[in-house]
Amino acid sequence: MKRSEMIDQLRGGDFEVLVIGGGATGLGVAVDAASRGYRTALLEAEDFAKATSSRSTKLVHGGVRYLEQMDISLVTEALRERGIFYRNAPHIVRDLPFIVPRYKWWEGPFYGAGMKAYDLLAGKLNLAPSRSLNVEETIAEIPNVETKGLRGGVRYHDGQFDDARMAAALAMTAADHGAAIATRCRVIGLLKEGDHCVGVRVVDREATGGDEEFEIRAKVVINACGIFADEIRRMDEPECNSVIEPAQGVHLVLDKSFQPSETAIMVPHTDDGRVLFVIPWHGRVVVGTTDTPMKSADLEPRALPDEVEFILRNANRYLAKDPTRADVKSVFAGQRPLVHPGGNTGNSKSISRNHEVFVSSAGVVTIVGGKWTTYRKMAEDTLKHATSVGGLDERPCITEDLKVHAALERDDPNLPTHDPHRMYGSDSARILEIAAAEPSLAEPIHADLPYTGAEIAWAAREEMALDLDDALARRTRSLLLDAKAAIEAAPRAASILASELGRDSQWEADQVRSFTELANGYRLS
């Protein structure tokens, strides 16, 4: 994806579908629209998956806790979409076994029956059957589990993925199908003819010489801005009520020793009634999450002290080796775009995780809510409304069987087994070519990070990475894996980016300074 070429297309374009928002929802809509053959554009104010969509629990899941709440329709839909997601992105999604440790006699039949229901609802798309484990089997699968009072466990399966890598793959999938997409393009107003929306006014924040404004026309405009969706709605209807209630989720990243196997732990009941996950990911362990109602949406939310202590306290109950603040390599927070048309209740756990589609009187289509697992279905539901509003020819949705960019078959010998290189699928071969052609780029960017300079160069050349935040937080996951190591890797990464993007030494210095300030917010003081 070449941003300059995309900007040229956007400036001169007259599109059928224009999507605002480059997170999971917007990218899914762009892929759906472009793959149907509609002339499609996507605008992202910051970077792909800059906010919520790069800060998830890294799971493609049916929602075990919603099964306990008897929300069967939500679980059934999510399990179906989990299976499709797993099938269409084999290089990014893997089968991850989970253990629910049992400490009371009744937990065996209770959780065992629940997981069998989970299997049944998944049907033919189930990843693997659940089963009960004795004490010895449970300890073998999750060696750091608290053994005092342990009676065994129940194993079930869900999917795991890398959210920001999936976002990059979806952006490239949309581009592969002809979509014009660009980051750092902020929508500052809507174009209307009479009472109907016919496009947007945009600021290109990366234009040579400073910000530049231009207009893009489209038959239908889709607002897919997640936690910021109400901002676009108010451009259309200034007096409209808010439908978004952000709820913050925090995760701690620990050393692999806190869960040394490739099996995750699911704690079904914490202090506040949520589940807690202890998940192996890219050679680290991710522990979370929280569910804290927030008063306003924040692009860079920070974990609250109580949230950090909540995670550590509940993790310590189930882990033999107890994590402390000193063990946390990175802490990240994201805000879920929960849909709450009826007003703020202050209890985010009670708000539906379903998605909703709204159409304004001016024809602006807004999609809100949902989660990564159901991104594809959310897009399909959005297009049902958008094609009608835009008067577009009806064309079938093909994303149920559409492989995402760079997908290889799961058993393809060319699919790298080394994580995280596996996330690049067939593109990994091109990254290796970069390293072979420029040996300096074959060197790791840091001893404690699993990336080389070639991944940084690739991000700039092909994935529209424009600064250190893009490259170290999302194209690679350096910032989430180890904030201190990411800060130490920043000067070398900035030098590579400057070379690729034609920037000078002052830009390098500014990037290192601003990234260090950002990354310090991912460290516990």
End-to-end distance, in Å? 38 Å
For this structure, the CATH topology of the largest domain is FAD/NAD(P)-binding domain
Q: Structural class, from secondary structure content? A: alpha+beta
Percent range for β-strand residues: 15-25%
Approximate shape: globular
CATH class of the largest domain: Alpha Beta
How does CATH name the architecture of the largest domain?
Answer: 3-Layer(bba) Sandwich
- Roughly what percent helix? 25-40%
**Number of H/I helices:** 16
Poorly predicted spans: 343-351
Q: How many beta strands in the DSSP annotation?
A: 18
Tally of distinct domains: 3
Q: So, the CATH homologous superfamily of the largest domain?
A: FAD/NAD(P)-binding domain
Average pLDDT? 93
Radius of gyration: 23 Å
Short description:
The chain is α+β, with helices and mostly antiparallel strands and 525 residues long. It contains 16 helices and 18 strands.
What can you tell me about this protein's structure?
- The protein has helices at residues 3-11, 24-35, 64-68, 72-88, 107-122, 135-141, 163-176, 229-236, 305-316, 375-390, 428-437, 453-462, 468-475, 478-481, 483-501, 505-520; strands spanning 14-20, 40-43, 59-60, 94-102, 131-133, 152-160, 180-182, 185-193, 196-204, 212-223, 244-255, 264-267, 276-281, 284-288, 292-293, 330-339, 355-359, 365-369.
- The protein is an alpha+beta fold and 525 residues long.
- The chain has 3 domains: 3-52 and 165-243 and 346-401, 3-Layer(bba) Sandwich (FAD/NAD(P)-binding domain), CATH 3.50.50.60; 84-161 and 245-339, D-Amino Acid Oxidase, Chain A, domain 2; 421-520, Alpha-glycerophosphate oxidase, cap domain (Helicase, Ruva Protein, domain 3, Orthogonal Bundle).
- Strand 17 and strand 18 (365-369) form a beta hairpin.
- Helix 2 packs parallel to helix 7, helix 11 (428-437) crosses helix 12 and helix 12 crosses helix 15.
- It is globular, with a radius of gyration of 23 Å.
